[in-house]
């Protein structure tokens, strides 16, 4: 796949991948609340708000191991505890202003859309369905429940594979996300990334993106020209 420069990012893309948390939905409040309860249930010190926010984006299994210093067994216990708490309230989130309208415009323009998230695919699907956004996506791809596919690079690869299986031209695909995990995961598949400022990433995370946008109007121009 070619990697366009920022100056060519306004050309019509052949396919667009979207992240979910921090890009389409403002899901951090619900995620961090469930994480805090998870640490409490497990009898572990609860990280502060900034530390909890760092868990939003990357695969949770990795975060429990790397950030909380858990063993594999402990991390799986934490994952199962978190899911039991979070999955029932996962749809209690909010879509960022303007995003639903943008997805509708992309769909109407005939540009294939795929969701590529490290959130479990079943949960991501429920969230999109709850807001009536699933109708805009040709592919909804997320992590597997057993975490065998959770790294962003693997999720992006699977999303592209499914698009290709549908006959979609993926030669000019772009990723839209909010964290460095999105840019790194997309880059592993030869795909450039546009980062949105309204998510959970820091300015430093935009270093490898082809651009950062501050509104859905700006994003629309980058995606639709």
UniProtKB/TrEMBL annotation:
SUPFAM superfamilies, A to Z: HAD-like (SSF56784)
Pfam families referenced in this protein's UniProt entry, alphabetically: HAD_2
Family annotation (Gene3D superfamilies): HAD superfamily/HAD-like, Putative phosphatase, domain 2
Record's keyword terms, sorted: Kinase, Transferase, Tyrosine-protein kinase
Catalytic reaction list: L-tyrosyl-[protein] + ATP = O-phospho-L-tyrosyl-[protein] + ADP + H(+)
A single cellular component GO annotation: cytosol
UniProt GO MF annotations: protein tyrosine kinase activity
Stretches assigned to coiled coil: none
UniProt family annotation: Belongs to the HAD-like hydrolase superfamily. CbbY/CbbZ/Gph/YieH family.
Protein name: Tyrosine-protein kinase PtkA
């Amino acid at each position: 796949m070619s990697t366009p420069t920022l100056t060519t990012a306004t050309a019509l893309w052949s396919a667009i991948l979207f992240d979910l948390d921090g890009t389409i939905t403002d899901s951090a409040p619900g995620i961090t609340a469930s994480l805090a309860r998870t640490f409490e249930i497990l009898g572990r010190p609860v990280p502060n708000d900034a530390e909890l926010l760092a868990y939003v984006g990357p695969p949770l299994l990795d975060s429990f191991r790397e950030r909380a210093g858990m063993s594999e067994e402990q991390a799986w216990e934490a994952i199962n505890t978190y899911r039991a708490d979070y999955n029932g309230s996962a749809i209690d989130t909010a879509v960022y202003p303007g995003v639903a309208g943008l997805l509708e415009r992309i769909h109407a323009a005939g540009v294939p859309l795929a969701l590529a998230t490290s959130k479990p695919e079943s949960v991501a699907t429920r969230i999109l369905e709850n807001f009536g956004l699933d109708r805009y996506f040709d592919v909804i791809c997320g992590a597997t429940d057993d975490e065998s596919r959770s790294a962003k690079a693997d999720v992006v690869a699977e999303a592209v594979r499914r698009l290709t299986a549908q006959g979609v031209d993926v030669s000019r695909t772009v990723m839209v996300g909010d964290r460095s995990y999105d840019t790194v995961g997309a880059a592993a598949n030869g795909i450039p990334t546009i980062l949105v400022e309204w998510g959970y990433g820091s300015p430093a995370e935009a270093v490898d993106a082809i651009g950062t946008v501050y509104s859905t109007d700006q994003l629309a121009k980058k995606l639709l020209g």
